[in-house]
Write a structure and sequence with these properties.
By secondary structure, the chain is an alpha+beta fold. It has eight helices and ten strands. The N terminus is likely disordered.
Amino acid sequence: MAKQTKRAKARRPKPAKTRAPKQAAKARTWKTAAAKRRIPHYRQTTDFTCGPSSVLMSMRALDSKAPFDRASELQLWREATSVFSGPSGGHGGCGPVALALALGRRGFKAEVHLNHRDVFMGERTRSAERKEVMRVLQERDLAEAKRKGIPIHYETLSQAQLEERFRQGMIPMVLVSTFYIHGDHVAHWVVVTGFDPENVYVNDPWVAVDKGKTPQDMTAFPVPRRAFDRMTCYGKQRERACVLVGR
């Protein structure tokens, strides 16, 4: 191809756009103003029902007549179990898609965000047979979610995106490691209740009564923003999951 020798016409740089004073003030307020929601706390009654307990809190925040009792907690667990707890088994935990389906059956909107397409928490078990059980259950959940139009996004929400959706009225249920709050490495579900420039606030359904904790201690628990980013990444596979709940 012949080399082009024609000189490109110089372009005059366009003047930078400036925001009107009211628009600039609004943008600053969005980034600095706290956004918090009063979400009632529900203390999980078993070691394995953090997901159902988070669902109960989210539903009650959106509907004052939503159930808030142990029978409902255990029914939700029975519906949403799709994960073996720990390497040697134990009572099952709840996956994000199964929790979203349970919310949909109760008339709530749900949207799932995951950072991978593999078996959710599949590396928690050393048994190939148990992992296969999880795969079958989770694939069935995915198929049902598709039929019912529940959005499944294979992407991680940034903290800014999570805050934006919260401000729009959605309640995030987020997978975390319990290390920051409780000092051990356990997969766990919590409910986000607010944001301010320094912290993300969560309702944690696990109340360590043996350590003198109360439900009030675990309500709107402040987590520094940097710690929240680390806390919402679980295990060697660095799994992230979030269920956004709406009405």
